[in-house]
Design a protein that fits this description.
Blueprint: H1 3-15, H2 24-33, E1 39-43, H3 85-92, H4 109-113, H5 127-133, H6 138-156, H7 158-167, E2 169-173, H8 176-183, H9 195-210, H10 235-245, E3 249-253, H11 262-268, H12 277-300, E4 305-309, H13 311-320
Parallel strand pairs: 1-2, 2-3, 3-4
Amino acid sequence: MSKSSSTSLTLVFFLVGLFSQENGAAALNLLKKGRVPAIIAFGDSIVDPGNNNYLTTIVRSNFPPYGRDFIGGKPTGRFSNGKIPTDLLAEAFGIKDLLPAYLDPNLTIRDLHTGVSFASAGSGYDPLTAKLVSVLSLSDQLHLFKDYLRKIKHVMGEETMGRILAKGIFIVCAGGDDIVNTYFPTLFRIIDHDIHSYTDLMVKSASSFYQFPDSEKVQYRTSSEPCQLLFANKIQQKRQELHKLGVRRIGVFGVSTMGCLPSQRTTRGGIQRKCSASENQASQIFNSKLSSEIDVLNENLVDLKLVYFDSYHSLLHLVSNPSQYGNSPSQ
């Protein structure tokens, strides 16, 4: 099995939890039956296929060496040498080969019908994170998602929109930029928060987003236009908004080993470029709180299924055992 196929299958079995208590065999049957009409993604660079190409920001990847292993060897705005996780998921579920960026002006209604990504590299659960680099906050992404729903309803009808909401898979992947780009390198948060209170802030923001709180109309900065994240205070108000939207299946990626990123190993890993312990510890603290919060939401939100994916230990195993993944040990 290729590394790409293996990765796809791992993600698919993680998401089978979104279909209640199915086993692995049932997961494969679900793929064959085409039970997933669309994939919708929110978050940061891990799932951004190029939205930042259309924003006034320095956080871009539409230049080499990005995309060198992609179709045609061309950079697309994905922060990867090839496909990103949401592309692999869309392919594994037989929906389409690539999950496109919502801000791509060349999108067709068919592209919208089968799902898009609203993710923006450099964004995070902390609303300050997106502001610092002028990218789409999660609040902005939610606003665009509502615009997307209006388009689907207008062109394809309310029934199609309802099926996407109820049967589609919604991916949320964020938090890493909060740790490595906002908390540790700037004074904006660290001066008032230790890592425990800051990760509390992150989890509160994450919880509010999963519940899709109703927010005031926000603007997002494009090549021609910052953004503010507003949260509802009462869980019942959030539940009403969620049920009104109809979202039922959300897959949440935990933060990976942020201290093992090349940038962190270079700037904080010492002369041997080891993984930075402080960033990794922060990642683990956040992930533990996030996983617990998801358990609470699953108990309290009717008809909503949230599934947590442990990105931290998955990537740590890859970093610690590179030969098992076809790579040679390197610093």
